[in-house]
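Example (one chain per record):
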Amino acid sequence: MTGFIEQFGTTTDPRVDGTKKHKLIDILFITLAAILCGCDEWAGLKSIIEITGERTDKKTGLYQKETHYYISDLQQDAESFNHLVRKHWSIENSPHRVLDVAFKEDTSRKRAKNAAENFAILNRMALNIVKADNSTKASMKRKWKMAGWDDQYLEHLLLNIKN
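Predicted structure:
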């Protein structure tokens, strides 16, 4: 089976020069992806957004480049879409994500009365206590483990709570 680019990469572009804003192969790829995903059900679709992110790992020097596609019922400029996407991912990288990773909050089955809300408050308190500890440069995950394994470290955390 040939790849998409091998199959369509040499397709002649029928558009007039000077009106081309996107590569034909990109348009074909997005069109095919939209058809496969049921685009006829995307009422009000106005934009398809492509965002390419680059990063270099400071420790390993490993360079990565990733492209993500989004669909939207908004019609805005690239800078506005970039801001919206960054805002979305900042939520995922916020305390919500930390709490979900540490306490698996999103999969919690606590349903009785105020149990979920009460545990959420306790989880946030625990997160703030561990975050405030500067006695070690360990990661959050490591600090959780240290508090569970070492009673002295747990006592240190609890006795050094700041108001």
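Caption: The two ends are 64 Å apart (CA to CA).
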